[in-house]
Amino acid sequence: MTKEELIAKIQIAFKDVKLEDGIGLWEAQGIDDYADAKTMLELRKKDERENWNAISDEDIYFCSSSLSFFDPKGMRFCLPKFLIFDILEQTIVDGKEFYSVDVVFTLGYNLEEHQKTRFSLLDRTQKECIICYLKYKLNAIENIYKKYAADYNSSLDAVYEDSEYFNVYKILNEWQEILQNDK
Fold first, then answer.
1. How far apart are CA 49 and CA 20, in angstroms?
2. Cβ-proximal residues to 48 (8 Å cutoff; 6+ apart), any chain
3. What is the mean pLDDT of residues 166-175?
4. Contact, 107 vs 175, CB < 8 A?
5. Nearby residues of 10 by Cβ (< 8 Å), 6 or more positions away
């Protein structure tokens, strides 16, 4: 799946999602920063609630730790923007002081418990997007090794010893199992 196809799939799967009364991007950042009640109220007012596409790349960057503090509604609303930010990272960060957010970590951390809570509102199509995203990440790592193998006439088998590759592969298998059990 190409980058463009994956982004289109995410756009379609999450297109009508609203934040509703969930924890949004800035409120989640406030939780991480141990903000006081007054600040939390201001941050909540600052949150986009209707159109996750309207969240800016700069806000994603500044609130990168928010991924760890969303409730189920916040995760369902903000996750697609984080996925697309990560997919387009090279384009977005070019010439800026941005760095990527660790979406893969969030998708794999304590997954069994989070599946019951933070990811509980994702529907089957949205979970399929996560699987496609993880396959895309695996493919990107494989492509680096393929180029290296071609340039230096070496084996591609080194990819299987790459810790990032192994981690993404493990998380992908966990999400495939979640989807299989989602009936």
1. 6
2. 19, 24, 25, 54, 55
3. 96
4. yes
5. 80, 83, 84, 129, 133
Q: What is the 3-state secondary structure (H, E, C) of the chain?
A: CCHHHHHHHHHHHCCCCCCCCCCCHHHHHHHHCCCCHHHHHHHHHHCCCCCHHHCCHHHHHHCHHHHHCCCHHHHHHHHHHHHHHHHCHHHHHCCCCCCCCCHHHHHHCCHHHHHHCCCCCCCHHHHHHHHHHHHHHHHHHHHHHHHHHHHHCCCHHHHHHCHHHHHHHHHHHHHHHHHHHCC
**Residue 40 to residues 24, 46, 79, 81, Cα–Cα distance (Å):** 11, 10, 21, 22
Q: What is the dihedral of CA 82, 84, 85, 88, to 10 degrees?
A: 160
- Among 37, 28, 40, residue whose Cα is nearest residue 78: 28
pTM of the complete model? 0.91
- Main-chain dihedrals φ then ψ at residue 106, nearest 5 degrees: -60, -40
pLDDT (tens digit per residue) in 67-101: 999 999 999 999 999 999 999 987 776 666 666 67
